[in-house]
Write a structure and sequence with these properties.
The protein is an alpha+beta fold and 130 residues long.
């Protein structure tokens, strides 16, 4: 299902805001973009999220001051129906973790829902093919 121009712009704005906040290490800001019922997966085997509390722990770890991670997302497809939208994209992770330089090319999918005029992530899945 194709999104109208307004909804497409709104979803892109949420993704841009997520990237801005994540790269600025704004933990509260990042968490505010996610539904209380968030579910999903990160890139590591143990990164499983079934609620907002688990997401908070994962984001807190990612945004650790000792880490210098930069995230980029290139949207490949967007679709939706009514108050639900989905996104498929490619992502890059770069920077350092614990003093070790990293670079990973990944994939992401996300589902967002409109909550009274505000789009929030309901489901996310980041993966690194290998």
């Amino acid at each position: 299902m194709t999104l109208n121009t307004k909804t497409t712009q709104e979803i892109k704005a949420v993704i841009d805001e997520y990237l801005r906040l994540y790269n600025a290490k704004d933990e509260r800001g990042v968490l505010a973009l996610f539904s209380k019922n968030i579910a999903g997966f990160g890139t590591a085997k143990d990164e499983i999220v079934t609620n907002h509390s688990q997401l908070r722990m994962l984001i807190h770890s990612d945004l650790n001051p000792a880490n210098a991670i930069r995230l980029g997302i290139t949207v490949l497809t967007m679709g939706g129906e009514g108050p639900v939208a989905w996104v498929t994209g490619l992502c890059t992770f770069g920077g350092s973790i614990g003093g070790n330089r990293i670079h990973m090319d990944g994939r992401m999918t996300a589902v967002l829902a409109n909550h009274g005029g505000r789009w929030l992530f309901e489901q996310v899945h980041f993966s690194v093919p290998g």
